[in-house]
Amino acid sequence: MVTAPRRIDPVLPGDRRPGLVWYTSYGSNTHLGRLAAYLRGGRPAGARRRYPGCRDRTMPARSLPVELDGAMYFATRSPVWQGGRAFYDPGADGRVLARAHLVTAGQFADIAAQEMYREPGGDGFDLTDVLTRGRAVLGGGRYETLVCAGQLDGLPALTFTAPWGMHDVPWVAPSLPYVRFLAAGLLSAGAWDLTAVAGYVAACPGAAGHWSAGDLTALLGRNG
């Protein structure tokens, strides 16, 4: 049964030191099996990197399908996946299919650190700036910009992306293992059917012209 995705309330949350946050994934971490490598440690199938995991290895208390304002695109080249990575441009027109995972603020910091090729641990990240302004640039690299898209059930919806916009860099097609995790994660969220997920991913810049909706439908059908 397909359920309606939740919309993020764009009003920034008032609590600047939340214990829990919604890690809002739009890339391969929409897939719970893939996310488990960041939380518990390990190497997901198709990846070339082993992740150390979070200090708190508990899986998310809840995972909800959500939609964000903005656009997803694929750019740069991941040495882990041998293809383009997914990025989020909150200033672009469109909608982004995503999955919000309810985790602790510490887990979010540890997940973000691993995406930034930093070691998880220590004091984590100070979320004050991103929760106050909606955006905090921690560095010039990919996934070093934190974004608060608003709130869901009173808790902040946080993610990370690059400091640039989708039209500032060349688009790069994602690899088969990467796009499989991303699309399968969205499909398993329960809000979008196979046709919707395949059409959405195939239309994203970087995937468009390389992966067709038919390709993705067949890929997900073989996995399902």
Report on this structure.
The structure is a single chain. Helix content is 27%, strand content 26%. It is built from 6 helices and 9 strands. It has a 7-stranded mixed β-sheet with strand order 1-3-6-2-9-8-7. A two-stranded antiparallel sheet has the order 4-5. The longest helix has 13 residues. It starts with 5 loop residues before the first strand and ends with a helix. The model has no long low-confidence stretch (mean pLDDT 91).
User: How much of the sequence is in beta strands?
Assistant: 25-35%
Into which percent range does the helicity of residues fall?
Answer: 25-40%
Order of helices and strands: EEHEEEEHHEEEHHH
Average pLDDT: 91
Structural class: alpha+beta
Strand element count: 9
Major β-sheet annotation:
7 strands, mixed
Which word captures the global form?
A: globular
Q: How far from one another are the termini?
A: 15 Å
Q: State the strand order across the main sheet.
A: 1-3-6-2-9-8-7
Please compute the radius of gyration using only Cα atoms: 16 Å
Count, helices: 6
Low-confidence stretches: none
Protein name: Histone deacetylase
SSE diagram, text form:
Blueprint: E1 6-7, E2 20-25, H1 32-40, E3 63-69, E4 71-78, E5 83-89, E6 95-104, H2 105-115, H3 128-133, E7 135-137, E8 145-152, E9 155-161, H4 176-188, H5 194-203, H6 213-223
Parallel strand pairs: 1-3, 2-9
Antiparallel strand pairs: 2-6, 3-6, 4-5, 7-8, 8-9
